Amino acid sequence: MGCTSFQTEDTAASGAPAVEPGKVLIVYLSRTSNTKAVAGIIQRTVGGKVVALELEKPYPANYQATVQQVSDENEKGYLPPLRTSVENIRQYDVIFVGFPTWGMQLPPPLKSFLKQYDLSGKTIVPFSTHAGYGVGSGFETVKAMAPRSTVLEGFSTKGGVERDGVLFVMAGNKEKQVQNEVQAWLKRIKLLSSK
After folding, report:
1. How many CB atoms lie within 10 A of CB 34?
2. Is the model's pLDDT at 148 over the cut of 90?
């Protein structure tokens, strides 16, 4: 990974990205926009291209119906087909993969993404939002599904609690808190300089 002097207003005070922004891909799945917000914070900090994962057949709008469908998919090992495709994935050195933790597991669409693309030799950086129970087995599944990649320490933060009607929470003080946590994490894993 080459160094660059690229800085934005957000990163000027906290250091510069330790990877060329053109070599960064941020892929995420988000139901209530919390994971999308974290992807945006990462993009504003290190640059890169942001891609939302979309399914050929979207999950139901009803929360309980989605919970049941995801549970069935996990039980059967079903990988839902993606509508999203990433052109020329070989051009990226660092690939962030973001997801909400569902049922204490990596969501099936992320498994579809990891299965669909050859990420050999890439640096994979997982991040997640959760409803208070943590990331579960999500980061371990990313490592298992990308055995020829370098998987760095992941980042996880509490997002909404959809079952309780708490949807988007990444605003105001929570957004600032997560931005500070993301910057500290990126410094720790050497993707943001400490200068």
Report:
1. 27
2. yes
